[in-house]
Amino acid sequence: MHRRSTIPALLAGGVILAMTVTACSGSSSEDPAVVSGGTFVQAISADPGDLNPMQAIDFSTFEVINMAYEALIYIDPEGELQPWLAESWESTGSEVTFTLKDGITCADGSPFTAETAAANIAYNVDAENATFYYGSQVTDGMTAAADGNTLTVTSATNNPFLVENIGTILMVCDKGLADIPSLSDSTDGTGLFPLTASEPGTTYSFTKRADYTWGPGDVSSDTEGLPDDVELRVLSDESTMANLLLSKEVNAAVITGPERSRLDGSGLEYTGVRNPVGEIMFNERSDRPTSDPLVREALVTALDRDEVGPVIAGGEALPSQSLVVRNPLLCVPDEPSWTLPDTSLERAGELLDEAGWTLGSDGLRSKDGQPLSVKFIYDAPTATHAPAAELVSETWQELGVTVELSANDGAAWSEQLYSTYDWDSGWVQVAPGGPAVLSLFFAGATPDQGGLNFGWVDNPEYNALVAEAAQASPEDACGLYLEAEAELINRFDIFPLADNILPTYYNGATFDQPNFIMPTTIRMVG
């Protein structure tokens, strides 16, 4: 069974299963009493950088902008599509019509209309704007028209997931659309909590609106239990986060390292989403050794997944099921569509020999007088990345590979992936909600052309299957996308070593987290 959604009128036909897990540690049998007001404080591990929602790709950026911007539809933790800015929708394979709710306003009090929504679609459809949504959720030839409170989006070709693709685009208000640069350090959306102050690298503050009435499930500004303010603090040290969680100075934080045992022992609970923490990606530029598929195959064949997996996953490794891991979980199979190679250091050496990298008397491999040197990058704030990278380095050194480990902060990720291209492999994860978004990172333009294909992947079989799937019927699209996904694994463009559940611990508040914390679901508890 493939998890996907086909939406005739208002009903979700098909199955979308959200991989959201709640672990109950010492939980009460009774729901805690909610208390309105106060400040909800969430720790985030990295600064979000540019806040433009149409350019956002980083996890930390989405955590911030998710507070202030909204979409036409909301996908809840169970994968069900719910009304949000739109109260209803009707769709065919090439056209969707959304009916917007009455009385929606932006944070500055100006109206949000169907014309505003149409302008958002038009901006994203323009290739020159190079938005995150272009090429995946919106495509060339799409048009958007407003008539009263209805928005009609027409695709030039059949689009198997038109409702989800258009319905989940974060909407910007008219003022922001007229001044795109202003969105880099401020917000202009319809959200319950607009950004009111920020200290980049330190704190992002949001204040509840008094005129909000259109939230999913009829949430309004007067809903009991909502905080008056939301504060997102940039904290990279998990010990600090854990201490603040236990004292209720912080209400929510992702904790992946050894501090988890202390939080579990104190009775704190967590919720989480599936996380491709063990994804290994490669730089396939022609000047890098990992441009050779034999080298890529050798490097991953050498790795013992049973040894490295538990380390990178914090002791809770899960076999990867799909490269799609976030809501709405389009085209996620019950079993993976690929087969990973058996671990064999001997076979890995043979592959490097075949690729021309010969082992010298010094125990190091070289070709044409150049050593086989691999720069492996990983995320500095993630507690499990460094020890797992050390294991990878030790294994590859046994093969005669010279390994340079490089710990990245937010600035370094941007520089290496999109500017200098100075990396070969690493713990590099993408976490899309559907295969069309996934294709941006593997079939799209390379960074020198303004695209997101930072691995410089050119996989003809994958590209052809993605192009075919994008125009297929909903019944056929998932099968083609799964074939495409397998091609990425078969060519070792990406290697899903292990997944885990990314746990968000909470104290003094509850919330839903379909992908990121949903602001309208935050409830303060006494």
TrEMBL record:
Domain Solute-binding protein family: 80-444
Signal peptide: 1-23
Molecular function per GO: peptide transmembrane transporter activity
Alphabetic keyword roster: Signal, Transport
GO biological process, one term: peptide transport
Cellular component terms per the entry's GO annotation: ATP-binding cassette (ABC) transporter complex; periplasmic space
Pfam families: SBP_bac_5
InterPro entries according to UniProt: Peptide/Ni-bd, SBP_5, SBP_5_dom
Family membership: Belongs to the bacterial solute-binding protein 5 family.
UniProt-recorded name of the protein: ABC transporter substrate-binding protein
Organism encoding this protein: Microbacterium hatanonis
